[in-house]
Design brief:
alpha/beta; Rossmann fold; seven-stranded mixed beta sheet; five-stranded antiparallel beta sheet; 17 strands; 31% helix; globular; binds S-adenosylmethionine
Length: 358
C-alpha cells in the first residue's frame, strides 16, 4: 500500500531549524541578513554549530583543511612578525573563525618543529562561535579580554561567512530582500528602499554590515603586531561592477555549488564575497599600515611555498601529496584566487608576501 512519503519541512533542510525560522517570521518577513544569521548560526540548529562541515567529508574545502603546508606558511609569516617585534614573550596569535582548529594545529606544529623559542612565546587564542576543536595548546575564547602587547591576528575565510544584507535594484533604487514563508517554502519579498553609496545600477548585490566594525575590532586585538586576512573578495569597484548582476552569494552543499539559499537550510554553507576596500579602510582607521590585496597564489609563491614541495623529492608519495596540495592552494580558478591583505602596527613593512608589485 502506498504511503504518504512527503518529508514535510525536512525537504527544505533541518526541519527543526526551518520550524524555528518560520516561528521567528511570525507570519511576516525577516531581512535576508537575519535568515542567513539563523541558517548559519542559530544557537542550536545553525549550520556551523555541528562539527565536520569543512573538509573532504563535509561540504567544501578551505586552505587549512587541504594540507598543513598552508598553516606552515602562515606560521613562518607570524614568526617574521615576532622577530620584527624583537622576539617578545608572550606573543599572542588570535584566530577569529578558527573552525575546528586546522590552521591553529599547523601553525603550532610548525613553531614547535622549527623554532622552540618561538613556540614557547606563542599563546594561541582561537575565537569561534560554532563547533570548536580540541587541541590542548589552543585557548578557545569568545573575544579577547584585553589587547595583547605583541601579536598577530590571522583569519581565513572569516569575513565571507558573515551574514549579509541582500539588495535588488528596482526602478526606485535598491530594495532590501526580505524572506517570508508561503506555507510551503521560503520566498523573497521586497523590503524598504535603501540608499547605498556606489551601488550597482541593476541586478542584485550584497552589503556586509558587520565587516567594517569587526575588522576594526580585530585590529585592536594587538597593540603592536600584524593582521593577516585571507578571503574571497574584490575591491568595491569590482565587487559591484555593473556586469555582475547576480551578486556573489553562493551555497555549498556536499562539494557542489549553487545559488539557492532556501534549500538544505542549516545543512549548507552560505557565503558572499567581501569588499576589500572596506577591510583595508578599517585597518587604516586603526592606524595600521596596509598591504595587498594579493592573490593567495601570489602570496604563497612569494613566501616560497613551492620549496616545501621540492624539499621532499626523495619521498615520492609525500612529494605528490604536497604537489597536489600546492596546486589546489594556488589554483587561480579556486583557492588561489582568495585575496590576502595585511596590516602592520609598530613594525616596518612590507611584510613577506607583499614585497613585489603583483
Ligand atoms: C568559512 S568558515 C572557515 C573556518 C576556518 N577558518 C577554515 O578556514 O577552515 C567560517 C568560520 O567562522 C566562524 N564565525 C563566523 N562568525 C563568527 C564570529 N562572529 N565569531 C567567531 N567565529 C565566527 C564560523 O562559525 C566558521 O567556523
Amino acid at each position: 500500500m502506498p504511503l504518504d512519503l512527503d518529508p514535510g519541512l525536512a525537504a527544505l533542510g533541518n526541519p527543526q531549524l526551518v520550524r524555528a525560522i518560520i516561528a521567528e517570521m511570525g507570519g511576516g518577513a525577516i531581512p535576508f541578513q537575519r535568515f542567513m544569521e539563523l541558517a548559519l548560526y542559530h544557537p542550536e540548529h545553525g549550520y556551523y554549530r555541528k562539527p565536520g562541515r569543512i573538509g573532504r567529508h563535509g561540504d567544501f574545502l578551505t586552505s587549512p583543511t587541504i594540507h598543513p603546508l598552508f598553516g606552515w606558511a602562515v606560521g613562518a609569516w607570524c614568526r617574521w612578525v615576532w622577530e620584527q617585534l624583537g622576539r617578545p614573550t608572550p606573543f599572542a596569535i588570535f584566530e577569529p573563525g578558527a573552525g575546528e582548529g586546522h590552521l591553529a594545529r599547523a601553525i603550532l606544529d610548525w613553531a614547535e618543529g622549527r623554532d622552540p623559542e618561538f613556540a614557547a612565546a606563542v599563546r594561541y587564542f582561537a575565537i569561534e562561535r560554532g563547533a570548536r576543536g580540541d587541541d590542548p595548546r589552543v585557548i578557545w575564547i569568545d573575544e579577547p579580554e584585553e589587547p595583547a602587547e605583541a601579536g598577530a591576528v590571522v583569519a581565513n575565510e572569516f569575513f565571507d561567512a558573515l551574514p549579509v544584507q541582500l539588495f535588488e535594484v528596482t526602478e526606485r533604487g535598491p530594495a532590501e530582500v526580505m524572506v517570508a514563508w508561503n506555507g510551503e517554502r521560503f520566498v523573497e519579498v521586497r523590503g524598504r528602499i535603501a540608499t547605498v553609496d556606489g551601488a550597482p545600477p541593476a541586478g542584485r548585490f550584497e552589503v556586509s554590515p558587520l565587516a567594517y566594525g569587526t575588522m576594526r575590532a580585530m585590529a585592536r586585538f594587538v597593540r603592536r603586531g600584524a593582521v593577516l586576512v585571507f578571503d574571497y573578495g574584490y575591491p568595491r569597484q569590482e565587487l559591484w561592477a555593473p556586469w555582475r548582476t547576480q551578486g556573489t552569494l553562493l551555497c555549498f552543499y556536499r562539494h557542489t555549488v549553487h545559488t539557492d539559499p532556501y534549500v538544505h537550510v542549516g545543512e549548507q554553507d552560505l557565503t558572499a564575497h567581501v569588499n576589500l576596500d572596506e577591510l583595508l579602510a578599517a585597518l587604516e582607521a586603526e592606524e595600521m599600515e596596509t598591504y595587498g590585496p594579493r592573490t593567495q597564489r601570489e602570496f604563497l609563491y612569494a613566501l616560497g611555498a613551492h620549496g616545501l614541495v621540492e624539499a621532499v623529492r626523495h619521498d615520492l608519495q609525500e612529494y605528490f601529496v604536497r604537489r597536489r596540495a600546492l596546486e589546489q592552494l594556488t589554483d587561480s580558478a579556486g583557492l588561489g584566487r582568495i585575496r590576502v591583505i595585511a596590516g602592520l602596527r609598530g613594525i616596518g613593512g612590507p611584510p613577506p608576501g607583499f614585497e613585489e608589485e603583483p
